[in-house]
Amino acid sequence: MQTPSGHPVESSSAKRLVVLASGGGSNLAALLKAHDDPAYGARVVGVVTDRPGIGALDLARDAGVPSAVVSLKDFDDRAAWNDGVAEAVRVFRPDWVVLAGFMKILAPEFLRRFEGRIVNTHPALLPSFPGAQGVRDALAHGVRVTGCTVHLVDDGVDTGPILAQAAVPVLPDDDEPTLHERIKSAERDLLVDTVGRLAREGVYVTGRRATIGA
């Protein structure tokens, strides 16, 4: 990430990660396992979910990581909910915000508040097949290779600068669940590796090009 003057933001050890999740938390589990290694360079300091009673909250509790539930039904409207999510994240003072299966779209105000510090994963090789049905769309298109992407979040749909990608072959007998499962396995490894590198090395962004480290 660059400051307005063009200088990179320097990273330091133990960057603070806040993870947003909506489900079982397989990506969160991978990050929690990685952060136990002091050499990883980052720690999950907070988990924010949009639903109670989900696996991600159990993982946070078992790891001794504080969490917050910001449920849409508890707010008068979507704008108030977005403010609630932003405040819940702010409390944990994140260096990086990681979207790990978070199933709601965040408001532009949230994105501006944490601009350049939000990381997301997508189950396709962007810019191909953005949106909620990336795996299904890749199969329907007949591609022989798909994969996953870790990218910075901007105000578009899966349009932020790409940080890292991993290829996953499409097998002749693949259906959506089997292909998605293999993509998710690659996605976990890619996310853990990329977040660790961001924490240890920082990132430069020039236009659409994001480069981790010097």
From TrEMBL:
Pfam families: Formyl_trans_N. It is an enzyme of class 2 (transferase). It catalyses: N(1)-(5-phospho-beta-D-ribosyl)glycinamide + (6R)-10-formyltetrahydrofolate = N(2)-formyl-N(1)-(5-phospho-beta-D-ribosyl)glycinamide + (6S)-5,6,7,8-tetrahydrofolate + H(+). Keywords: Purine biosynthesis, Transferase. The active site is at H122 (proton donor). The record marks D158 as: Raises pKa of active site His. Its EC number is 2.1.2.2. Residues 15-194 form the Formyl transferase N-terminal domain. (6R)-10-formyltetrahydrofolate binds at R78, M103, K104, I105, L106, N120. InterPro entries: Formyl_transf_N, Formyl_transf_N_sf, GART, GART_AS. Pathway: Purine metabolism; IMP biosynthesis via de novo pathway; N(2)-formyl-N(1)-(5-phospho-D-ribosyl)glycinamide from N(1)-(5-phospho-D-ribosyl)glycinamide (10-formyl THF route): step 1/1. N(1)-(5-phospho-beta-D-ribosyl)glycinamide binds at G25, S26, N27. Belongs to the GART family. Catalyzes the transfer of a formyl group from 10-formyltetrahydrofolate to 5-phospho-ribosyl-glycinamide (GAR), producing 5-phospho-ribosyl-N-formylglycinamide (FGAR) and tetrahydrofolate. PANTHER family: PHOSPHORIBOSYLGLYCINAMIDE FORMYLTRANSFERASE. HAMAP family: PurN. This is Phosphoribosylglycinamide formyltransferase. It comes from Myceligenerans crystallogenes. The lineage of its organism: Bacteria, Bacillati, Actinomycetota, Actinomycetes, Micrococcales. The gene is purN.
